[in-house]
Amino acid sequence: xxxxxxxxxxxxxxxxxxxxxxxxxxxxxxxxxxxxxxxxxxxxxxxxxxxxxxxxxxxxxxxxxxxxxxxxxxxxxxxxxxxxxxxxxxxxxxxxxxxxxxxxxxxxxxxxxxxxxxxxxxxxxxxxxxxxxxxxxxxxxxx
Length: 143
Ligand SMILES: [Mg+2]
What we know:
- The chain is mostly helical.
- The chain is built from 6 helices and no strands.
- The radius of gyration is 19 Å and the shape is globular.
């Protein structure tokens, strides 16, 4: 059985490790993954009958990410293994699907995930509303 409290403690210890937030340490290659996922998904950006490029709806694409997260939640709720990769947990595979969709999206629209993730992690580390004290106040973020 997973010890979620120990797991959360480890995550918290890493999250407050300011050295881990140093900008040179964070160039995880997200933009390269975006380019790779967008290239792998090229057929979804083409009309299947003609092969011509098709415009994609951003709202629809973002909701497809949400649908993968919902599938991951169902996998966790029912403690399921994946049906397509049966050696893996369903949630793990659905999270991979969500990431693939996010990377495809970022690759298509030229978003700089390397830079945005690096900057947002650094910003979040300084947020007063994320401290334990702020979270314990009335109206604080409980989760
Ligand atoms: Mg899926």
